[in-house]
Design goal:
Layout: H1 2-7, E1 24-27, E2 41-46, E3 49-51, H2 53-59
Antiparallel strand pairs: 1-2, 2-3
Amino acid sequence: TSGSAAIMRRRDVGRIAVGQRADILITGGRPDEMIADLYDARRMFVGGKQIALDDERRMRGEDVREEDGGE
């Protein structure tokens, strides 16, 4: 958040804006209400670049099937 970034005196993080660094996970649920919804990942951005979810799942050792299509 911008408040945490300000405390750390970081101007390159803490906001979603042009020129800012961002790691963002977009889910299909409400992880603020149900933490398990974090596993319903729809899109992921690391350092401002979109990461293919199949690649991320493979890095974690999950079984990714071709017919699932991934993201």
